[in-house]
Amino acid sequence: MTGVRSVAAVIAFTLVLGACQLPRGGADAGPDPQERLQQRLDAVQQDLAGLDSRLSEIREERQAETTGIRESLEALTVEVEELRQQVREQRGQLEVTQHDLERLKERQRRLYEDLDVRLRALEKGEAAPSRAEAGGDRTGPPSGETGGADEADDSTESEPAGPEEAYQAAFSRIENNEYEAAAEAFRSFLEDYPDSDLASNALYWLGESHYVMRDFERALGEFNKVLQNHPDSGKAAAALLKIGYSFYELGEYKSAREALNRVGDRFPDTSEARLAKKRLERMDEEGN
């Protein structure tokens, strides 16, 4: 704006000099030089006024655009944060759903195996064996099955009822989503029956209880015990998978990748290996 006024001043000064050099004449000499100079100055001032008005309009337009962009960015930031919160909530719900699905699949597998053993025994004309004799995984009892008369009849030949009943009581806490009580029950089981053939499963479900309660440090400790004390257990693959999951939740992504890759290397063609692969793919998408 200062530059425009400077140009106008130079133009006015030039006009004044030109007017001073005009010859003085009579009536036919035309308009008075001062009048012509005044007319030119008036025209310049009108042009300057137009420029001032246009500059004000441009400033207002830019200010309105800037305000609109700022408001849009603020609204977008709020929406992004809401979406992130929803993703975190959905991720937690998905973990619980996957956990429940794994339990259902495992229970179904154990039920089929137990039923198959019993049917074979009946075909041979033998008494149906108890679940302990059938050699099932015994991760937990199928719903409604607590042993029954068969186990009572064979009590003299099978494992004492103490560890089995204690394990089933602890597992029922898992089924009822009473994870704190389940953790205490499995801990007591391991103290009372450290050499039981159910110890590896009890360790795993103790870790699982802590994992669901989001106590990932303690969950890691129990899952590692499964691998250290029972490396050939049927729960070794699941424990290694949950070690990777726990490191992921703690933000220790390098350790999480190492554990998840070990699942695929050590237990290929298993459901745990497929879950580990999916989690690694998610980490790639997240840039972790």
Number of strands: 0
What is the string of helix and strand elements?
HHHHHHHHHHH
Q: Quaternary state, please? A: single chain
Shape: rod-shaped
Number of helices: 11
* CATH topology annotation of the domain at 159-288: Serine Threonine Protein Phosphatase 5, Tetratricopeptide repeat
- Overall radius of gyration: 42 Å
Q: Determine the strand fraction and express it as a percent band.
A: under 5%
Roughly what percent helix? Answer: over 70%
Keywords summarizing the entry:
single chain, 288 residues, mainly alpha, Serine Threonine Protein Phosphatase 5, Tetratricopeptide repeat, 11 helices, rod-shaped
List the helices and strands and how they pair.
Layout: H1 2-21, H2 33-123, H3 131-134, H4 148-153, H5 161-175, H6 179-192, H7 199-212, H8 216-229, H9 236-249, H10 253-266, H11 271-286
Helix pairs in contact: 1-2, 5-6, 6-7, 7-8, 7-9, 8-9, 9-10, 9-11, 10-11
Question: How does this structure look, described?
Answer:
The chain is mainly α. Among the domains are: 68-137; 159-288, Tetratricopeptide repeat domain (Serine Threonine Protein Phosphatase 5, Tetratricopeptide repeat, Alpha Horseshoe). It contains eleven helices and no strands. Helix 5 runs antiparallel to helix 6 and helix 10 (253-266) runs antiparallel to helix 11. The longest helix has 91 residues, at 33-123. The protein is rod-shaped. The chain starts with a helix and ends with a helix. Residues 130-160 have low confidence and may be disordered.
